[in-house]
Amino acid sequence: MLIKNTLKNIKVILKNAVEKQRLHKVVEVLEVVENDNSNSQKGFSLPELIIVIAIFAIITTIAMFDQARLNSNTLLTNMAYEIALSVREAQVYGIGVRDSSFSTTATGIFSGQYGTHFNMATPREVMVFGNASETYVPYDPSGPNAQARVRYVFENQRGNFISAICVGNLEGNPVRACQTGQPEIVNVAEVVFRRPVPAPNIYKGSAVGTMTPAPAGERVYVVVHTLDRANCRVVVVEPTGQIRVVDSSSGLCVKSQ
Fold first, then answer.
1. CA-to-CA distance for 172 and 165, rounded, in angstroms?
2. What is the DSSP code (8-state) at residue 132?
3. What phi-psi label fits residue 221: left (phi over 0), alpha (psi between -120 and 50 degrees) or beta?
4. Which of 51-55, 65-69, 172-176, 236-240 has the lowest mean pLDDT?
5. Considering only 100-114, 146-160, 162-176, which range has the smallest mean pLDDT?
6. Domain definitions of the chain by residue range
7. Paired residues of 168 in beta bridges
8. In the CATH hierarchy, which fold is given to the domain comprising 72-250?
9. Which residues of 23-37 are buried (b: 16+ CB within 10 A; e: fewer)?
10. Phi-psi category of residue 99: left, alpha or beta, with phi > 0 → left and psi -120 to 50 → alpha
11. Chain centroid, CA 87 distance in Å
12. pTM: predicted TM-score of the whole model, two decimal places
């Protein structure tokens, strides 16, 4: 009986010791977790903060330069398409049903013409004008009914400008050809439409008073540059009446030399 009680007591002691050991292990685990949480709340060190700020500064600088280049290209493209749309507007008026008189009220006169006027003297301006008669009359700012003939004026005020105007069939690069003294370069050009033909009548000259008809089949090239001449577009009016814009990525328009 004594031996039995002794074994029972030893068993209880061992059981208590095991339970204490388990609790000790649990306490160790809790301490480890607490230490990890306290370490995770310490934040960044000073060198880490400096590196992160430097990375953000580099990314911001690159984004700002790219944004400026994107804005410049977008404004240049917008100007080129505004010029193309001005030619299209004259075409729609010329072959459509726009009254060609200069009266403020409708007169039912549809026998006139409409055209787009390009002049190197005003490189940031494109004008859509009307002719009341079937006979071509070049637009002259100082001529009779000058203001009444104007239907629409596009004026760019963001630095981009028309750098060259050519009339002909240029081979290779029209920008280089227009800016190297080729015979096709002109100071003034007008693209005129008269119903019912969508093909344009093209006139060219060194000044308003020297306008002459261009030979059949010739094109009009209007070169548009950024202010620093680093990028450009070309508006091309085809003899069929098609109007297109060519950018520098197509190989026809390169940096000004």
1. 16
2. S
3. beta
4. 65-69
5. 100-114
6. 72-250
7. 219
8. minor pseudopilin epsh fold (3.55.40)
9. eeeeeeeeeeeeeee
10. beta
11. 19
12. 0.68
